[in-house]
Amino acid sequence: MPFYDELYKFQDKLQHVLTRHEQGATHAAQGFARVSGKVGVCVATSGPGATNLVTGIADAMIDSTPMICITGQVPSHLLGSDAFQETDIIGISTPVTKWNYQITDVKEIPEIMAKAFYIARSGRPGPVLVDITKNAQFDTSDFKYKHCNAVRSYKPTPEINPSDVDAAAAIIASAKKPLIVWGQGVILGKAEEEFKTFVESSNIPAAWTILGVSALPTSHPLNVGMVGMHGNYGPNVLTNDCDVLIAIGMRFDDRVTGRLDSYAKQAKVIHLEIDPAEVNKNVKADVAVLGDVKQTLPMLTQKVASKPYTEWFEKFKAHDKIEFDEVINNDLNPTKEGLSMAEVLKEINRSSNSDAIVVSDVGQHQMIACRYATFNHSKSNITSGGLGTMGFALPAALGAKMGAPDREVVAIIGDGGFQMTIQELGTIFQTQAAVKVVVLNNDFLGMVRQWQQLFFDKRYASTEMVNPDFVKIAEGYFIDAKRVTKRADLGKAVDEMMASDKPYFLEVCVEKEDNVFPMIPSGASVSEIRLS
Amino acid sequence: METNYTISIYTENSVGLLNRVSAIFQRRHINIISITSSASEIDDVSRFVIVVSMTEDAVKKVVGQIEKQVEVIKAFYHTDEETIFQESALYKVASKSLFEERHIQNIIKKSHANIVTVNTAFFVIEKTGFRHETEQLYEDLAPYGLLQFVRSGRISVTKSPMNIKALINKLND
């Protein structure tokens, strides 16, 4: 209350967005942070308000998103007394925060907030929680602000060892079939230009993780697609064929590597990474180049020469053709009556000229969005990668629109995830943030259903959804809304949505039992990727 | 192969850090054999000593996770051979056995244990040493009736220098 009473006086300087649920606030702060590169901030009250933040904090932790959560707390003399709305949010949030701190004295506030922002955004970013007891909020003190740019025990960026760069360059010089796999580190390091220069001057095919994707335009000739469970055929299969694997700002997540003991065993591995704890965590690196990629990439670029790799590129082309013929063509140009998720993405790409920010939720539609959305600009693919948080997209899209008000923001959400944070339609309505919300409705928790079909003999245990009228719900929030069920209406509906300068809701009823392919089955190697 | 490793962590002295450090073990389902936290050779810097049984590959990863915590200054892991380590134990025995059972005095003398306190009701013996030494004394005293027994976690120093002072001086600049 005292905190909000002060905010009331600063309405012209600080925009406060009243989300309907604290989880929504965290995802909105994440969306804001991911598109803007700034720290997202959310505020919640003590007790249930604080515990409702936990999912978003965990999501920000695993996806390295700079975020600050400020929580209220009971007066310090009541700590530990089971007071009304008291919860040990410091204890609860410890494993999922980069740092957390409980302020019990008003005099600590300026220093701790400065430190919190510094820790959240520096090095490998992450969420920071600051819990402020009620007495510290009520008391007053002289405001003495000092910018924080160092914390004694904290080393955000490791020192670069130039001999590691030399060793990496020597390995690349001997490569005949090198492959780059880049992740979000390129974006977090604001190193898109340095990365593009490295890729172009080395002429090495480059594949991306779902959090790395938009760092290099989709149309770039050296962009060979997505790695991982539902990634592209070529980069997955050829991971087990390359002789040098250059991992840049990525952490070898199990959804990327598949079965670890048969992942790129033939290759020499070079790992460019800011977090020393990530080196050799999942995949052993022959050479680790520690440091910020914004610095290490130009050093490596200087020492690496371009080579044609003609036969190697032919292999990618051959695999691309197989994937196009067996999967992509069917997805984008289906011959059956029901709409495919991919053709919705195709229409959005066309209508937005690949300039939109795409915020996806979690599940089949997410994989389709990541596979088929096309991007011209960095910081354009916002999704819950590591934690796989259903319900992420709607509030994250709102935050993304706040963080990039001049850009189109399209949320792609499944009918399951949409209903997990559906209440944020209210926030979108109240703020009039012109978010374009697309629900791809197949009346199933589709990804789980896909696994049940493939691995559990079609026993669809608790995956079928009996859904409400989503259009009516959106209209109930006074948001323009439309439902599309036929291919003939799709393009026009997408154009109408993109042309709107207001929030817009579009439900597309898609084929109920479509599957996402290619797919690396759980426990299989990347080269055992299935096309059907 | 799992072996005992002693993890030494130099940290800032802050509330909640013990929770943050122990959560790293708990998350990986690792049982901490012993843990102590105390002052170190440097003012305002704490030192944790944690004993775990793990593979070297796993302990390396855990130390990496510990070291990246904001308030951790430096973390190391060492084998038993690389450290000098001790534990302390206290044994509380009824006083009458000290006077009635002459043998107990021989046990105390032989084990190089110290009598910390004696009164009419009980006496307390302290023994600092290796685990097998404190365990041996436990076995020897048990027949006479132990009223209480307690053993500390391991404390250890390394044979090789840690150079933390130099690091702290550099960080303070």
Walk me through the structure.
Chain A is of the alpha/beta class. Chain A has 3 domains: 2-138, Rossmann fold; 162-316, TPP-binding domain (Rossmann fold); 337-509, 3-Layer(aba) Sandwich (Rossmann fold), CATH 3.40.50.970. Chain A has helices at residues 2-7, 22-36, 48-51, 54-62, 89-93, 109-121, 134-138, 162-173, 185-188, 192-202, 233-239, 254-257, 293-303, 310-332, 341-352, 364-372, 393-403, 415-418, 425-431, 446-455, 470-476, 487-499; strands spanning 40-44, 67-73, 99-103, 127-133, 178-182, 206-208, 223-226, 244-248, 268-273, 287-290, 357-360, 381-383, 409-414, 435-441, 480-484, 504-509. Chain A has a 6-stranded parallel beta sheet, sandwiched between helices. In chain A, helix 10 packs parallel to helix 13 (293-303) and helix 15 (341-352) crosses helix 16 (364-372). Chain A is globular, with a radius of gyration of 24 Å. Chain B is α+β, with helices and mostly antiparallel strands and 173 residues long. Chain B folds into 2 domains: 3-84 and 155-172, 2-Layer Sandwich (Alpha-Beta Plaits); 86-151, ACT-like. Chain A, domain 2 (Alpha-Beta Plaits), CATH 3.30.70. The radius of gyration of chain B is 19 Å and the shape is elongated. At the A-B interface, strand 3 of A face helix 1, helix 2 and helix 6 of B.
